[in-house]
Specification:
Nucleotidyltransferase, domain 5; 50% helix; 5 strands; alpha/beta; 5 helices; 5-stranded mixed sheet
């Protein structure tokens, strides 16, 4: 299975494609961060995200897109900006015919680090280890996007094992 993880943000939107082979090994396919210039109009920033994610989807052919669920500890203005970015990411996936799944920050950190309140640095280091990268991904938004993809792969594998063991 190949998953595109997207970490939506107002300044940086991270993305990462991770693949899990039949033996369960994880493989880093690509990753990066889209830097959004605050001087650009919102619609220009959103178009840049849409175009770039569409290109990643076309080039790397993920089967599913995983994003972070909205969390409520931010101010209203930040939440609105994040909502716009999430909407564009979901639209890019839908235009490619891909399903979108969302995970809470707690679930993502638990799946990758084993602790739902892990710090960003811990996520970066663990992602580098899991994907056998030579250095922790920078900026942290890239590590977060890869972590979201890994979270989906772990969750899908667990659900598959439960389905098989239930005799379905």
């Amino acid at each position: 299975m190949r998953v595109l993880g997207i970490d939506c943000g107002g300044e940086y939107t991270g993305y990462g494609v991770v693949e899990q082979d039949d033996s369960g090994a994880l493989h880093h396919v690509c990753s990066g961060a889209l830097r959004l210039a605050s001087r650009d109009a919102l619609e220009v920033r959103l178009k840049k995200i849409s175009d770039a994610l569409g290109e990643v989807i076309t080039l790397h052919a993920p089967e599913v897109v995983a994003i972070e669920d909205v969390f409520y500890a931010m101010n209203v203005k930040s939440a609105l900006k994040l909502g716009h970015v999430r909407g564009v990411a979901m639209l890019a996936a839908a235009q490619a015919g891909l399903p979108v799944v969302a995970y809470s920050p707690l679930s993502i950190k638990s799946a990758v680090v084993g602790y739902g309140r892990a710090e960003k640095v811990q996520v970066q280091v663990m992602i580098a280890n899991l994907l056998r990268l030579c250095a922790p991904p920078e900026p942290p938004d890239v590590a977060d996007a890869l972590a979201i993809a890994v979270c989906h792969l772990h969750t899908a594998a667990t659900l598959l094992r439960q389905h098989v063991s239930a005799g379905c």
